[in-house]
Amino acid sequence: MSDLVKVERDGGIMIVTLNQPEKRNPISSMDMVDALCAAMEEADADVSVRCVILTGAGTAFSSGGDVKGMKAGSSGGTRAVNPADTRRNYKWGIQRLPLLFQALEVPVVAAVNGPAIGAGCDLACMCDVRIAGESAKFAESFVKLGIIPGDGGAWLLPRIIGFSKATELALTGEMIDAVRAEAIGLVSRTVPDDQLMAAAREVADKIAANPPHAVRMTKRLLREGQLASLANILEMSAAMQSVAHTTADHDEAIDAFIERRPPVFRGE
């Protein structure tokens, strides 16, 4: 695993940390995209990983794109001399992240430990649950740099906070603090900075306490529900339910309920 992303395992919880604190954890480079995708794919492939916590090292969650790499003539950035190459850099670079996060079955909790700016804000939006420390700040700030959200932010943000609020943030580029982010539904809760990881872990543990196959299928239905018709979701729900009914964890849940004891789920 690349040093750009630190991966730790604690029981059924995987903690993935963006690990470029000296640069405030930008995510636009190909190396960072590769490292983050590899970590998330590893978690998704392992059913014993019940939940992922995503956070940033240092004082920032993610500064988003590398602004210096956007300057004309710079090397290593997404911007290229040939517009066709720039398009490909987005497609095979940062745009892989929203597609991957949308496809993940393992739940992801963002522990936003500081500024989440531009693509960093959108990365938080790619996660399923967002918990913010008091020092967290959010900005859909692409317009301030004369560009647009090239990583799917125009799709992500309205689905979380609604069209009107998303439009306001995207067109003004305004930065908001954690308190306002909670008020508009961008984050689930705001906690003191020194309690952030404990709060994220509390949510992750509550998710991890449930049967993993049911959790993953429920998440899949919620994600598909962003796009599919009610009829299609009902059809998919029936198919997934037929699978869920055959799992040993389902039988264990029923037996534990009848016997009035705590269930023991094994992911079977």
Topology:
Blueprint: E1 5-10, E2 13-18, H1 30-45, E3 51-56, H2 83-92, H3 96-103, E4 108-112, E5 115-117, H4 119-126, E6 129-133, E7 137-139, H5 153-161, H6 163-172, E8 175-177, H7 178-183, E9 189-191, H8 196-208, H9 212-224, H10 230-244, H11 248-259
Parallel strand pairs: 2-3, 3-4, 4-6, 5-7, 6-9
Antiparallel strand pairs: 1-2, 7-8
Helix pairs in contact: 1-3, 4-5, 5-6, 9-10
Count of strand segments: 9
Largest beta-sheet details: 6 strands, mixed
- Structural classification: alpha/beta
CATH classification class of the largest domain: Alpha Beta
Under CATH, the topology of the largest domain can be stated as 2-enoyl-CoA Hydratase, Chain A, domain 1
Low-confidence stretches: none
CATH architecture of the largest domain: Alpha-Beta Complex
Features:
268 residues, alpha/beta, 2-enoyl-CoA Hydratase, Chain A, domain 1, Lyase 2-enoyl-coa Hydratase, Chain  A, domain 2, 15% strand
Short structural description:
This protein has 268 residues and is an alpha/beta fold.
Describe it.
The chain is α/β, with parallel strands linked by helices and 268 residues long. It folds into two domains: 5-208, 2-enoyl-CoA Hydratase, Chain A, domain 1; 212-259, Lyase 2-enoyl-coa Hydratase, Chain  A, domain 2 (Orthogonal Bundle). 45% of the residues lie in helices and 15% in strands. It has helices spanning 30-45, 83-92, 96-103, 119-126, 153-161, 163-172, 178-183, 196-208, 212-224, 230-244, 248-259; strands spanning 5-10, 13-18, 51-56, 108-112, 115-117, 129-133, 137-139, 175-177, 189-191. The strands form two sheets. The protein has a six-stranded mixed β-sheet with strand order 1-2-3-4-6-9, sandwiched between helices. Strand 1 and strand 2 (13-18) form a beta hairpin. The two termini are 29 Å apart. The model has no long low-confidence stretch (mean pLDDT 94).
